[in-house]
Structures are given as C-alpha cells and as structure tokens.
Amino acid sequence: MPEYCVTGGTGFITSYLVKSLLERGYTANLIEPSIKGTLNVLISCIEATTVKRVVYTSSCSKIRYREDIQHISPLNESHWSDPDYCKRHNVRSIYLINTITKEEILSLYYIQILVYNQHVSFVLLPCKLWYAYAKTLAEQSAWQITKESGLDLVVVNPSFVISPLLGIIKGAIGEYPNQEIGFVHIDDVVAAHILAMEKSEASGRLVCSCSVSHWSRIIDMLKPKYQFYPYENKCGPKKGHDQPHSMDTSKIEQLGFPSFKTIPQMFDDCIKSFQEKGFL
Known about the structure:
Helix content is 36%, strand content 17%. It is α/β, with parallel strands linked by helices. A three-stranded parallel β-sheet has the order 3-6-9, with helices on one face. Strands 7-8-10 form a three-stranded mixed β-sheet. A hairpin with a 2-residue loop joins strand 4 and strand 5 (119-124). The longest helix is centred in the middle third of the chain and has 20 residues, at 130-149. The termini are far apart.
C-alpha cells in the first residue's frame, strides 16, 4: 500500500484529501514544513531520492487571466495566465467584519471566510491580481526545477472551490463579485488528486473544473430554491475577472475521471453543510 506525504494538511483542500486517503486505507503523513515555499519543498523531494511523484495543487487562476481568453477558449493545460494582465487589474476593496489578526489577513485571497462563535468574519483584499501573478510564477518555476532534476511532477489545476459562498448568501458584503469563473466540488478536487497519484500515465497539468458561470447567474439559480436568504443584489464594478470563457477537461477525463458534479449539486451540498453547522 503506497504511503503519501501531504503538506499543508490543515488547509481546506488538503484536509479533505487526507480524510479520503485514510478512508481508502492509505498511510498519510502530515507535514507543516518549516521549509516554506513550493521550490523548497520540491528541492527536499529531489534530495530525498525516494519520492516517486509529486502532485502539486495549483489553480485555474494560473490559466485564465489573459487578454485573449475569449479568443482561445476553451482553456486547457497549455494556457498560462499573463503576469502583466494580473498586474493591470484590481480586485475588490476590503470588507471586514469583527476583528482578525494581521497574520490571518495576509493568508487570505478573494473571499475567504473565517467563523468565530457562529459569526462570520471575512476580508476582500484591496490588491491587484497578485495571487494569480505569484502562483503563476511559482508553478512555472516548479516545472523548471523538475525538468532539470527529472522529478516526476503532476499538477492539478482546480477552479473555484465553492466554500466562500456564505457572505454572498447572507447579504453581508454589499455586493457580489463581477466574476466569470469555473466552479468545482471539493469531492472532485480530492478525486483528481488521487487520480494524479495513482495513475502512472498521468502527467503534466490537469484542469479540474465543472462549468463556468458568473456570480449573478449563481444567485439567480439559488434564489428560487432558497428564497429565505438575503442575497446580495448588486454586482461589484471591478473588471478583469469578468471575461466569458470555458475550460477543457478532456485530458483528465481521458485518464478515467468520472463526470464532474454539476453546479446545482455542489451548491446544494455547500448550503446543506452550512445549514447543518448552524451558519445558515
């Protein structure tokens, strides 16, 4: 039975991944390394000599931010976000409820939700697309170092995992993002990582995404079914996230990945989870 080493095991995606690995009978060693950064982790794997493959959690944000997105769509693993585009476009302003620490603020991007005693605190960072910018450069550097070393690297590029939904449903942030984005269920993200680990023929980047939609259409979809929540009804003004596009998932499907859960399925599961925990 293979043994897996998982870094960042307390994060949202990795915590679900570890749970799934343990349920399958695998041994999963959790490491919160004192060595920080993607490149340093890869260097450690290279020096260990016993690591057979590294599966790196990336993001579709390293694919979709570019001027020509509508002309080249559907986007696939060969496409990269343009760092210059990321530097030109701003994201939303700060909205802060309750008090959180500087360290917590620095760990956030887009809409990140923290829960304290049944209350929601969140921040929308007033910056340019630095997340996509920095992560694009980090993944490109990862490919360079593994190419030079011969380390087997497979990258999973998930789209937007829907956990940051609560503030929009509760009408607590003043507006919803002017964002056209792919969505994906956490279960599908976990399944994609396990497939990347187990399939010997897996290679390169793997787009992991269901359909692409705008937040306005998501809210319109939810309102008839969940009528009792005070949804946001104002779209944010910022540009840069709002270009229509689609994602090509044929590569991961050819590896035997089953059908992605639909947008209605993933949002139903998300809302049910919030309701069960008393957040809605």
